[in-house]
Amino acid sequence: MLDGTEILTSAQMRALESRAMASGTVTGLQLMERAGSAVAGQIRLRWPVPGRVTVLCGPGNNGGDGYVIARLLHEAGWRVRVLGLPAPPGPDAAQMKDRWQRIGPILPLTRAELQQGGGPHLHVDAIFGTGLTRPPTGEIAQLLRHLAGFGGDLVAVDCPSGLCMDSGAMLGQSREDAQYLLRAGLTVAFDSPKPGHLLGLGPECCGRLVIADIGLHDWRVTGADDPPAAPRPLTEAIWPEFDIPDSRRPALSAQKQAQWLSRRGSGRGHKFSHGHALVIARGIGHGGAARLAARAALRIGAGLVTICPTGSALIEHSAPPDALMRKQVNDAEDLAKMLADRRITSVCLGPGCGIDRASDLLPVLLASARAAVLDADALTALAMDDTPFRGLHGNIVLTPHLGEFARLFPDLARRLTETPDSGPAYSKLDAARDAAARSKAVVLLKGPDSVIAAPDGHAAIHSAFDIPWLATAGAGDVLAGIITGLLARGLPALDAASLGTRVHAKAARLFGPGLIADDLPDLIPQVLRDISG
Ligand SMILES: NC(=O)C1=CN([C@@H]2O[C@H](COP(=O)(O)OP(=O)(O)OC[C@H]3O[C@@H](n4cnc5c(N)ncnc54)[C@H](OP(=O)(O)O)[C@@H]3O)[C@@H](O)[C@H]2O)[C@H](O)CC1
Ligand SMILES: [K+]
Questions:
Q1: CA angle 273, 279, 282 (to 5 degrees)
Q2: 3-state secondary structure of 436
Q3: Which residues pair with residue 444 across a beta bridge?
Q4: pTM as predicted
Q5: How far is the CA of 184 from the centre of ligand 2 (A)?
Q6: Which CATH number is 5-238's, of 3.40.50.10260, 3.20.20.70, 1.10.287.130, 3.20.20.150?
Q7: Which of 95, 279, 422, 449 is the most buried (most CB within 10 A)?
Q8: Whose CA is nearest to atom 19 of ligand 1?
Q9: What average pLDDT does the chain have?
Q10: For residue 3, what pLDDT band results from cuts at 50, 70 and 90?
Q11: For the residues 279-290, what does the mean pLDDT come to?
């Protein structure tokens, strides 16, 4: 049994459903009834007074869910209209379709019919779910374009139709011309989030995301021969709008992260037992970014933090925090001398460091095999190198935003911008994994949908679409410092990058709009109290 919240791909979801059905403990029909019941339940929760609803049913099991929803809402007093397709779907959906037809008609699934709907009422999109493999075309594409304007009164079953659930791309649409971008007010998905709910256009299209438990958890067993326990009672796990689980198969689950954070060392804790981080700064007048990173490294709990400007700039770093130590590093030789001290356990290179200085210091840093964060100017310096990934290793975290990523991995970035004409489309998750495998380092591909990937393929997704104010100057420097501090304390690179991203976002949520990067480090203690519970 995997603890923590797992994000399953469409194929993994199908395999999970098949394992459950093959066990003979549950049938596809029961799963469909549970899925439809979960959606109908969420609708009744949000719109307690029965009204008018149009349910749009597609050709497969997503449509089957729609027939269940129609029947249950009818039984709850809703005035239900169903639009569907004449072709018989698979056996489970066919049975649900028949059960609806004993209650009411199925009108043609066309734009013209949709427009007959009359006044304000709810629409339920049960056209495509995890089975979408190619861009919708013809009549269905027309209908989806018309549906795109429905917004808040649109409930999506499993996902808004047209969305690739593995990438968050709209099949057949580039990001720019997603003219029929369905924006649901509510999406009810089943068992676990899929990457497409969290990446790319997903969060914008899904609206409020609710993950309904349809009793499959116990088949997500690790060993093939583990006897599946009886399905848990059906409960809806309602994810707050923003705090969608940020990890997939975490080496450290959320509660283990909390335990680790609250760890007081071996009881004989002293400053060195929580590591010593170096933050490389630059010359006069360029100290701000490195100071933000250094302050953050202190606040996240590194035992010692030393900021290392050039000798001429030392005077600039005499202001508080007094806990911050200062040591000049003029060149690679100076850094090599410092790194001879094995008690130095992590280095932050990049924020406010200068590209030439980063290029000069990188070889020594990489040769020292120390844990490190390479951000900003260090990433630019790497990209300018003719063998950019030589010497990188698994305890290095690269923290590019999309622009820096495109300079380091131009071919991967190009694939991300292509218009996907078949699913599963290439995703930020794929790109981060490919980059990590190529560079042999952990890659944190930043954005409102951040993806953290290790060279072995383990990955985490953090969704922060709800905090646009985090996109403020210096926020990346603080994130680099947080991760550096966690590395200094001995957290492995994937966990340091995942947990660091989570702490960084939570601090931003705590503060709210009007945030500037300087606010972030001093919010970390509150976040640590919240996470440690
Ligand atoms: N499996 C289960 O027990 C449960 C599934 N649930 C729901 O089922 C869907 C997944 O259902 P599935 O039938 O696999 O696929 P969809 O309903 O999403 O798609 C229907 C079929 O549509 C065809 N397709 C794909 N792309 C297009 C397109 N662009 N235009 C037209 N048709 C398209 C495709 O068949 P093809 O053979 O034509 O490729 C699909 O099969 C899941 O999302 C859940 O909602 C239950 O909820 C839980 C149990
Ligand atoms: K759907």
A1: 160
A2: helix
A3: 452
A4: 0.84
A5: 10
A6: 3.40.50.10260
A7: 279
A8: 131
A9: 87
A10: very low
A11: 91
